[in-house]
Amino acid sequence: GQSLEQPSEVTAVEGAIVQINCTYQTSGFYGLSWYQQHDGGAPTFLSYNALDGLEETGRFSSFLSRSDSYGYLLLQELQMKDSASYFCAVNEDSNYQLIWGAGTKLIIKP
Amino acid sequence: NAGVTQTPKFRVLKTGQSMTLLCAQDMNHEYMYWYRQDPGMGLRLIHYSVGEGTTAKGEVPDGYNVSRLKKQNFLLGLESAAPSQTSVYFCASSTRGEPTQYFGPGTRLLVL
Fold first, then answer.
1. Would you say residue B1 has pLDDT above 70?
2. CB spacing of B31 vs A44 below 8 angstroms
3. Closest CA to B65 of B11, B112, B20, B15
4. Radius of gyration (Cα) for chain A, nearest Å?
5. Which positions 75-94 of A are in contact with B (Cβ < 8 Å)?
6. Which residues, at least 6 apart from A78, have a Cβ–Cβ distance to it below 8 Å?
7. What tens digit of pLDDT does each residue of A9-67 get?
8. Considering only alpha carbons, which residue of chain B is nearest residue A100?
9. Cys-Cys crosslink for A103: which of A28, A85, B39, B66, Cβ 3.0 to 4.6 Å?
C-alpha cells in the first residue's frame, strides 16, 4: 500500500530550529515535495527533492534519502508566521500526481 | 494574473442535489487537478487532467465527474451529493516538467 508518515504536531519556540520528518512507502517515486498550509488557506509549494541531499531556500531546507525512503523539512529562525501545517507529498509518476501525508501542525510559542 | 480561481467559495447542498465546481487558471498550465481535504487529513486526488480534452481518475473518483473542454478550465461535478462528500475542494494546476502545483483558494461544501 501507499503511505506517508509524518508527526501530527510539533511545538517549537520563536527563533529556534525545527525539523519535520516524513517517511514514505509508495509504488513509484519521482520526488518529494513540501507544502505549507495556513488555517483556512490553500497549500503553497515550499520545496522539491528528486535526488538525495539537501536543498536550501532561505530559512527553509529540505533533505531526501531515497535509500531510506525518508525526507525532512528544516525550518530555521522560526517566526510566528511559520505557524501552519506542513505536508510532505510524493510524486509517484511523471504526471506529478501527488500522494499526500496527513500533515504536521507546527505550533510556535513566543 | 489571477493564478487559480475557484467558484463558488462556499455551498450548502441537500442530499441528492447536483452541482458543478469551476476551476480556472490563467497560467497556461497543461496539468490540472481536483483534490478534497477532510479534517486532519492530507489532500486526496479525485481526478486530474494532463491536457485539454483528457481526464483521468485519481485516488478517490467515485461520485465525481470532470470535464476539461478548455485548457484553462477544469470542472468538477457531483451528480447526486451525499453527506460523505462534505469537504473542502481544492483545484490545482502545474506545467509539464515542473513539480510545483499552484492551488486555488478552495470551495467549502456542506452536504446535509
1. yes
2. no
3. B20
4. 13
5. 87, 89, 91
6. A12, A13, A14, A15, A16, A17, A18, A108
7. 999 999 999 999 999 999 889 999 999 999 999 999 999 999 999 999 899 999 999 99
8. B42
9. A85
Contacts with A87 from chain B: Cβ below 8 Å: 42-43
Q: Distances in Å between the alpha carbon of B80 and those of A4, A109, B32, B68, B76?
A: 32, 45, 23, 20, 13
For an interface test with B, give the residue of A45, A55, A93, A104 to mutate (most B CBs within 10 A): A45
Length of chain A, please?
110
Q: What is the pLDDT of residue B8?
A: 97
Confidence check: pLDDT of A97 > 90: no
Dump pLDDT digits (tens) for B7-37: 999 999 999 999 999 999 999 999 999 999 9
Chain B residue whose CA is closest to A4: B42
